[in-house]
Amino acid sequence: MIMLKKTSRTFYIPINRLKEGLKEAVASAYLCMRAIDEIEDHEIIADDLKVKLLLGIHDIFQSTDVIAGTQKLMAPYSKVLPAVTLQLDEWAQLCPPSVAEVVYRYIAMMAKQMADWVHESWNIRTEDDLDRYTYSVAGMVGEMLSEIWFWYDGTKTDKIKAVAFGRGLQAVNILRNRTEDLERGVDFFPDGWGPKEMIQYTRRNLKLADAYIVELKGGPALDFCKIPLTLAHATVNLIAAGGNKLTRDAVMKLVNSIN
C-alpha cells in the first residue's frame, strides 16, 4: 500500500478500500502493470533494452516460476530501474493463488504489446492506432478487472464497456501528460488531432464507462470503479477549461462526495 500510494493517488484510494482477498488481487495487478509501464516510459534506457525486458516479462509470466524468473531478469538493472519495477516479484507474490492465472495472463499480454509499441516507436497516425494503443496499456486492464470481479463474487460485466473504462482513463492521462510526452519524443495524438479531438475521444469512452458502472449494480466492483471514473471526468473537464491537474484538495472533495 505504501508503494501504491507513491505511484498513484488515483488508484490507491479505491484499492485500499477493497475487502481482503479482492484488495490483494487488484493491488497485485495494478503494481505489476505499473512496474512494466515504468519500463515502457523510462527516459534513459534504450528502446532495445526496453523490448528485451518487456519480452522477458511476457515469457516469465507464462512460465511455471514467475518469482525466480523475474528476480533473475531484473537483477542486472538495479541501478537504472525504479523500485516499483525492481519489486515486480513481490507484487506478483501478493496475488491470491486462485486468481493469479488471470492476473499473470494479462501481465504477459500487456508486456508483449508494450514491447511491440516500443519497437514501433509508438507510431500513432490514426484513431485505430490510438484505439490499439489505449487497449494495450489500459483497455485490457478493464477486461482483467471484469475477470477479477467475476472471480471474487460472480459479478458479470460487459467487456466492451470494460475496455472503454480503461481506455477512457488512459485518454485522460494522454491529455494530461501531453507536454511531457512530446518532450521525450512521443506523440500519442493521431495525425491532424489537437486537444479538441482528443477530448472528444476521451469523453466518448468515458460515456461508455459510465454505462459500464451503471450495470455493476452495487458491490465492490462499483465502489472501486466510481472513484477513478469520477476523477477522470473532473480532469477532462478541467483540461477542457484550460487547466491540467486536479489538486489534492479537489481529489479528496470529489472522493468524499461519492456515495
Could you please describe the fold and organization of this structure?
- There is one protein chain.
- The chain has 259 residues and is mostly helical.
- The protein contains 14 helices and no strands.
- Helix 2 runs antiparallel to helix 13, helix 9 (127-153) crosses helix 10 (159-176) and helix 10 packs antiparallel against helix 12 (195-214).
Largest sheet: none
* Distance between the amino and carboxyl termini: 23 Å
Task: State the order of secondary-structure elements, H for helix, E for strand.
Answer: HHHHHHHHHHHHHH
Give the fraction of residues assigned to helices.
over 70%
DSSP summary: helix tally: 14
By secondary-structure content and strand pairing, the structural class works out as: mainly alpha
Question: In terms of per-residue confidence, which ranges show pLDDT below 50 for 5 or more consecutive residues?
Answer: none
Rg estimate, integer Å:
18 Å
Q: Can you tell me the overall shape?
A: globular
Number of beta strands: 0
Strand content: under 5%
Mean pLDDT: 95
